[in-house]
Amino acid sequence: MLxxxxxxxxxxxxxxxxxxxxxxxxxxxxxxxxxxPTCVPAANMSTGPGGLGGDNLKYTIMVGAACVGSLTYAYxxxxxxxxxxxxxxxxxxxxxxxxxxxxxxxxxxxxxxVEATQTEAVPESVxxxxxxxxxxxxxxxxxxxxxxxxxAAAPSETTAPPPAADxxxxxLKVPSHTPYLLIGGxxxxxxxxxxxxxxxxxxxxLIVTDEPDLPYMRPPLSKELWFSDDPSVTETLRFKQxxxxxxxxxxxxxxxxxxxxxxxxxxxxxxxxxxxxxVVHMDxxxxxxxxxxxxxxxxxxxxxxxxxxxxxxQVIERAGEEVMKKTTLFRKIEDFKSLDSxxxxxxxxxxxxxxxxxxxxxxxxxxxxxxSGLEVIQMFPEKGxxxxxxxxxxxxxxxxxxxREGVKVISEALVKSVTCKDDKLEIHLKDGRLxxxxxxxxxxxxxxxxxxxxxxxxxxxxxxGGYRVNAELQARSxxxxxxxxxxxxxxxxxxxxxxxxxxxxxxxxLAGENMTGAxxxxxxxxxxxxxxxxxxxxxxxxxxxxxxxxxxxFAKATAKDTPKAATEKSGTxxxxxxxxxxxxxxxxxxxxxxPPVAHKDDYGKGVIFxxxxxxxxxxxxxxxxxxxxxxxxxxxxGEEHADLNEVAKLFNIHED
Amino acid sequence: MSSVRxxxxxxxxxxxxxxxxxxxxxxxxEEDPNDPYEERGLxxxxxxxxxxCPCLGGMASGPCGTEFKDAFACFHxxxxxxxxxxxxxxxxxxxxxxxxxxxxxxxEDEKSSSKTSQDSTExxxxxxxxxxxxDSNTSQPDTESTAES
Lengths: 656, 149
Known about the structure:
The complex is a heterodimer.
Chain A: H1 2-29, H2 53-101, H3 110-121, H4 137-140, H5 147-156, H6 163-167, E1 177-183, H7 187-199, E2 204-208, H8 219-222, H9 233-236, E3 238-240, E4 246-248, E5 270-274, E6 279-283, E7 288-291, E8 296-304, E9 308-310, H10 314-318, H11 321-325, E10 327-329, H12 333-345, E11 348-352, H13 356-372, E12 375-379, H14 392-404, E13 407-410, E14 415-421, E15 424-429, E16 434-437, E17 439-442, E18 446-448, H15 453-456, E19 467-468, E20 474-476, E21 479-481, E22 486-490, E23 494-496, H16 501-515, E24 527-532, E25 536-542, E26 550-555, H17 563-570, H18 577-584, E27 605-612, E28 615-622, H19 628-637, H20 644-649
Parallel strand pairs in A: 1-2, 1-8, 2-5, 8-21, 10-17, 11-12, 11-17, 12-13, 19-22
Antiparallel strand pairs in A: 3-4, 6-7, 7-8, 9-18, 14-15, 15-16, 20-21, 22-23, 24-25, 25-28, 26-27, 27-28
Chain B: E1 3-7, E2 10-15, H1 65-77, H2 88-99, H3 112-123, H4 130-134, H5 142-147
Antiparallel strand pairs in B: 1-2
Organism (chain B): Amphiprion percula
Domain CHCH (chain B): 64-100
GO molecular function (chain B): protein-disulfide reductase activity
């Protein structure tokens, strides 16, 4: 439509001038069928300009040429537009491939697309390497199919490991067999590796990950690392724990692991990590997998812990490369590094998403904003922060706290479109509001990675996403799934999929136990936690969904009841508030005044019970710490309690 | 006195300290000490060592895991008057191994128990409680297990 308009605009002057000339000629010649006169009878020449036959001819030729010229121009313009449109569509569908490869259009980027197409097209019989050279042309064509985004998403997982670093380990021999194969190198995988090694003496465990990093923990990327005083934190990736001790986000230093070549021969076994390699095909009958470089690894037991990929907003994906360049999808170490550098240079950052990640990043950046003058905006469709988790009254209260951290919160915001103008992003909301910003962070959820479902013949859950597994985390014989990608059956709470750190640890450990013969179901309930500024910290367990009826029991708050105070007093539970203390006392008004003691609506600390059919299925400990075992017990019992105030007494919320 | 308010489906109760002073009438189900599904502490009910206890951190799974297991198992089953005095060989082997990986096993002290607590604090970047870490030998694994990575 726009194109037509631009074309018309271009043509209009020409059209107008040529039409007036035409009309003049028509009038002169007396013709009124609109045909361009090619020959003007000299007799009908009247008082036109010039009034000579030669001039008339000139005009006719000019008009004719102008019309032909304009038609030709219009034709080519439209053709060009169509071609650009086609290219644009192709570009969009292959963008995720390119963006993750950066400049490196190496052989490595070809095989992922190749293998991804193969997994879609070829059934279980393991395709030989021969068909693969023919595949490169089809990927260009299927790039336009709707299936493409899924495939594009698959290679997008291959981060931009410097191809040089990957090609040198080409000399690294990939073991052809491993007793324990763990696909994915995150928290769940590491927990499983540890569990296997603890239970099976001398076990040989191979972790295959497409990231360039060894296994690391994710929560500090949106929490502690932002509060570090160390300017080189993006390099060291070290943070201070609740107990003051510093540690790296990596679970273990590189010396913990053995080289994959040594895996088979190591006397006492060990854990080897193969980085920068993606498993693209799984042959369940043959008990083997194929990597993106065509090597095959056979296994005895396999764990799939592939986690997920951050979701993006459709409006951003459609908005073009300029917008995508200024958008961060936050999940990995490289995202942390890039957002850190953006936050030092940009004037304004907008976070889209009001859940855990969005709110934590907003608070972290909001704290930075007090020092640097950075504008931090957070927008989401719900009414308040954590709107899908906390009951409305608490969500509203939390939103006020987030605002005090220096964040401009725009609630009930639905993004209609995003454009890039004058090197700034313009976010148009559906209700007409316009937000101008330099950079966007999209924290709108996680898409579980189920790329191997097709080739392995594994079931994918339609309600929660992820691989469907039983209560013992098993998908099929010899295949288990843990972490974000596992949709499992919780004996107490029903089928669910959990995307929290502790769940990754618990489920990874359980999967490791079951891979070594334990046959235990998911029983130990995992928990999660979040801090939003110095005043709001909570731990939670079970199903914590704001659509469930809740009962909240609160104590009247005093100054003593904040994460800050809890750290100082008992040195427990809180994540690095001890060093945020130091930064907070700098002359900036990030210290909020004491909550008024007698105020009725002050939710300083308490317990919130989430009920389903009168049974407590979820509990939030609001600014109350060290009580998780009691909460876990209540959920495990699964009893109907007549008076939840009595249950709340068990938590002793008035004490520290 | 406590105040109760209802906001739609959510009930909000404010309580004072006095309100909560009386003991709770809520009933909790009795724990089964032999529940096979429960997370166990360091020592299982049959007397064996639970190598997968989060309290051990990465000790049993690292490069020196085998040496550690030998030494600790020997210590655990030792019937000597000075417990573990017959396990010097295993402890020496473990120490030798650990010296080869100073990054993983900082050479601050040699006792395996204090090493485990240190190691486990190193590895728990998540929310955890220091108090219960000391109780590694009791059946209070809950907070640790969730805290351990």
